[in-house]
Design a protein that fits this description.
The protein has 28 helices and 20 strands. It is α/β, with parallel strands linked by helices. It is globular, with a radius of gyration of 29 Å. It binds 3-hydroxybutanoyl-coenzyme A (3HC).
């Protein structure tokens, strides 16, 4: 066995060369790995004893793609095309032996080989689209030749990997190998095909692409069917164009189209944002003062106080992963209603085929309802999810303190109250933490884990680990009004409300935000949530536009009218009634009306968010800028291709943001001030990403 370089070895067993790569953690195709493959293939080709070559990886996976950390560096030799050409140009057949995940450049390497074999647990995919890219090493040209353009379109635009059996059925791989026997079976397979000539090359396989030629409707229909999903993203369209080139042009020309489109995407801001998010999603779990070896509190049973919409949704998260939940209500009818809603939610999943009725029954059997708080005594984690009232919450925590076993975590789902104050009523404040789920709690991916002054490290570590277990993405934040997400939303709401009084209509502001890439605008969102959230009829004094709307029984979607008018299907349309209410309100307040430009609306809405994020960093409420972005992407639908408000600020330049905020000056409100951190970073030419919270 000979070492090729630090990550590659070539062994020769009889007439087979076995080129093995080992570059933890995921065998990403770094310069060194590419070099190992390139030289290893050349060496095997030069070895007269070798008749066929097996390409295989050690560790947990086959190559998981290009090394994303190298994308910002200049060209490093050997390039992807040089490596791919070495494999495909080999005069001896090369067999890719796949385990784990063959992703992106990894699958492209496999497709440059003559044959692909895999263990049943392996997965194959081209996830470049998730990084705002397309497969740039021939993937868009070879995949449709193997699986046909329809499946290729699905794979490259969804980025979702397929399992080995599906890959076998669709022609992507040639044979399934029993688990644990990959190396030996690959050698055996290589012996079988060693003398097959002419050499099999995917680039020469034209049947499947030729069959789609002259059928532009394949692409037109695909674009139409996915228009909503792809809105705002460049990469899906570029992937489609590249597959179109594979169908309509000879291989070499298609490859050139792919290269050109890849380059454009790589140089654009969308891919930069999406690559940033890839690392942000991994970074968010890392907490500088809570080391990896912090003891974890085993969570075998969860208690939830409150069976309302939040309580029920939270319960589903735990039941879904097999953790039994006891849910407490104060009245039987409320409890029955809460459990009924959970069952209905599960039953809805049977209609889409996600669950069977047996699954539903099993999950419901893990959920116990009770009226007695004492039943939570043996829970390892109790989450309070009742309405937002400090006295009532403190009352519940004081009782839980007496009932629940020592060592258990006592959590609150509050989105508005000071958790330090809640924790002040218990004798074990170190066990208290905030778990701020977003509604619907069984669907939304974000969880803000809120540490108090006293939350212990094991409590924090356990909350983060549990979040992962229930499929959430968690950001650790500190206590402040609104925490990270709602605090930044509040900053935007103030601007949007102010602009209504200056002459913009809700639908103009919403359209600007929607066109920016958000799933819905400020006022459409308010209508959805209900304008009467926190509104008390008896105390209503027509003090805000929102109050006037509620007084007119325009309380949002549920009453058929709010900022917008709604039809039977809840489709919104601009409302002359709302317009009159706003104009009258502004006139009464003596505020002059003017036409606001879309640019002003966007800048005021978004730049104040960037400013609020900087304040959050300044106050050390968030650990890092990218955690704030994770919150806004996963909790509020901030477009991934803009990387989150902090990344967006960095992209357009903090100097520009500060200059604009200063130019808007008093319009931003008497309470608005520019974050000193933002000003400092702008003056130093730095980015929010460079600032630690
Ligand atoms: N490049 C660089 N680092 C990578 C990487 C990659 N392609 N893939 C994973 N890593 C790093 C992660 O950042 C993480 O680092 P950390 O421990 O320092 O945080 C470590 O490897 C482990 O990754 P995960 O935590 O994600 O491990 P999992 O076991 O949960 O998942 C995986 C493994 C499924 C391979 C997942 O990491 C993944 O999806 N990776 C990205 C795959 C991808 O997008 N490939 C396409 C790259 S673009 C490309 O190939 C372009 C080509 O067409 C030219």
């Amino acid at each position: 066995m000979g070492a090729i370089n630090a990550v590659a070895t070539l062994a020769v067993e009889g007439d087979i060369g076995i080129l093995t790569l080992n570059s933890p953690p995921v065998n990403a195709l770094s310069q060194q790995v590419r070099d190992g493959i390139h030289k290893g293939i050349q060496q095997a080709v030069a070895d007269t004893a070798v008749q066929a070559i097996v390409l295989i990886c050690e560790g947990k996976t086959f190559f998981a793609g290009a090394d994303i950390t190298e994308f910002t560096q200049g060209p490093l030799s050997p390039s992807f095309p040089e490596m791919i050409d070495a494999i495909e140009g080999s005069p001896k057949p090369v067999v890719a032996a796949i385990h784990g995940t063959a992703l992106g450049g990894g699958l492209e390497v496999a497709m440059a080989c003559s044959y692909r074999i895999a263990v049943p647990s392996a997965k194959c995919g081209l996830p470049e689209v998730n990084l705002g890219l397309l497969p740039g090493a021939g993937g868009t040209q070879r995949l449709p030749r193997l699986v046909g353009p329809e499946q290729a379109l699905d794979m490259v635009t969804s980025g979702k990997p397929i399992d080995a059996r599906t890959a076998l059925a669709s022609g992507l791989i040639d044979e399934l190998i029993p688990e644990g026997e990959l190396r030996n079976s690959a050698i055996e397979f290589a012996r079988k095909i060693a003398r097959n000539r002419p050499l099999r090359r995917v680039r020469d396989m034209n049947d499947k692409v030729a069959a789609a030629r002259g059928k532009p409707e394949i692409f037109a229909d695909f674009r139409k069917a996915n228009a909503r999903k792809f809105r705002g993203f460049l990469a899906p369209e570029y992937n489609i164009r590249s597959i179109e080139a594979a169908v309509n042009q000879p291989f070499a020309e298609g490859l050139q189209v792919e290269q050109q489109l890849f380059k454009e995407l790589m140089q654009g801001t969308q891919s930069a944002a999406q690559r940033y998010v890839f690392f942000a999603e991994r970074q968010v779990w890392k907490i500088p003062d809570v080391p990896d070896d912090t003891p974890i509190i085993p969570i075998k049973k969860v208690g939830i106080v409150g069976a309302g919409t939040m309580g029920g949704g939270i319960a589903m998260n735990f039941v879904n992963v097999g953790i039994p939940v006891t849910i407490v209500e104060t009245r039987q009818d409320a409890l029955d209603r809460g459990l009924g809603v959970v069952r209905k939610n599960y039953e809805r999943s049977t209609k889409s085929g996600k669950l069977t009725m047996a699954d539903v029954d099993k999950r419901m059997s893990l959920l116990t309802g009770t009226l007695e708080l004492e039943r939570l005594a043996d829970c390892d984690l109790v989450i309070e999810a009742i309405f937002e009232n400090m006295d009532v919450k403190q009352g519940v925590f004081a009782k839980l303190d007496k009932i629940v076993k020592q060592g258990a975590i006592l959590a609150t789902n509050t989105s508005a109250l000071d958790i330090n104050d809640i924790a002040s009523v218990v004798k074990r404040p170190e066990s208290v933490i905030g778990l701020h789920f977003f509604s619907p709690a069984n669907v939304m991916r974000l969880l803000e884990v809120v540490r108090t002054r006293h939350s212990s490290k094991p409590v924090i570590a356990t909350a983060m680990q549990l979040a992962k277990k229930i499929g959430k993405i968690a950001a650790l934040v500190g206590v402040c009004p609104g925490f990270v997400g709602n605090r930044i939303l509040h900053a935007r709401t103030l601007q949007a409300d102010a602009m209504l009084l200056e002459g913009a209509m809700p639908w103009q502001i919403d359209k600007v935000l929607y066109d920016f890439g958000l799933p819905m605008g400020q006022f459409a969102m308010a209508d959805l949530a209900g304008l009467d959230l926190g509104w008390v009829k008896e105390r209503s004094a027509s003090a805000t536009i929102r109050e006037v709307l509620c007084e007119a029984d325009r309380r949002g979607q549920k009453t058929g009218a709010g900022y917008y008018d709604y039809d039977e299907q809840r489709h919104p349309s601009p409302s002359p009634v709302t317009e009159k209410i706003i104009r009258d309100f502004a006139a009464k307040s003596g505020l002059p009306q003017r036409q606001l430009s879309d640019q002003e609306i966007l800048e005021r809405c978004v730049y104040v968010q960037i400013n609020e994020g900087a304040r959050i960093l300044e106050e050390k409420i968030a650990i890092r800028a990218s955690d704030i972005d994770i919150v806004w992407i996963n909790g509020y639908g901030w477009p991934v291709y803009r990387g989150g408000p902090m990344f967006y600020g960095d992209t357009i330049g903090l100097k520009h943001v500060v200059a604009k905020l200063k130019a808007y000056g008093p319009k931003l409100g008497s309470n608005f001030t520019i974050s000193p951190l933002l000003e400092k970073l702008a003056a130093e030419g730095k980015r929010l990403q460079d600032a630690a919270g």
